[in-house]
Amino acid sequence: MKKLFTILALIASIFAIIFSVLPLSNLAIIPAIGALVFGIIAFYLSKKEGSVKKIIQFTFILTFIALAITTYKSIFTKTEVTNTDAIEAIEDKLEAESMQELEDLDIEIDESELEDIPFDE
Fold first, then answer.
1. Which residues are within 8 A (CB) of 59 and not within 5 positions of it... i.e. 6 or more apart?
2. How many whole angstroms from its chain centre is CA 111?
3. Could you read off the pLDDT of 83-118 as tens digits, one per residue?
4. Which segments within the chain are labelled E, that is strand?
5. Is the sign of the CA dihedral 65, 66, 71, 73 positive or negative?
6. In whole angstroms, what is the distance from residue 80 CA to residue 63 CA?
7. Largest CA distance in the chain
8. Which is nearest to 6 in space by CA: 67, 44, 111?
9. Rounded distance between C-alpha atoms, residue 49 and residue 39, angstroms
10. Which of 3, 68, 69, 104 has the lowest CB atom count within 10 Å?
11. What is the pTM of this model?
12. Angle CA(93)–CA(96)–CA(102) in degrees, nearest 5?
């Protein structure tokens, strides 16, 4: 049981480190909390046996580093919206071109083809 919680804590702390360096670093909080919970359980079970492994302490260090990176990025990283006029102009141009292409299409439908289509009422 101790090995299971130790492995789960290590995996969760590695995920927390990975998520903390990605642009969406706020997602690192979820595996960090899991790593802390699993680490505490593994620490308690190993304390019961009388031998605390270094891997559990390493897991705590990784988790605290991930939380520190996440906290730093959330405090000091500012999200700025730049000028979106150019993007909106491109969208309008593409929409106008799409409308023109749809208007240029010549679709001919025979009424005899429509009679063969079954409609559910």
1. 6, 9, 10, 13, 35, 38, 39, 42
2. 51
3. 778 888 899 999 999 888 888 776 766 666 666 677
4. none
5. positive
6. 29
7. 87
8. 44
9. 15
10. 104
11. 0.63
12. 140
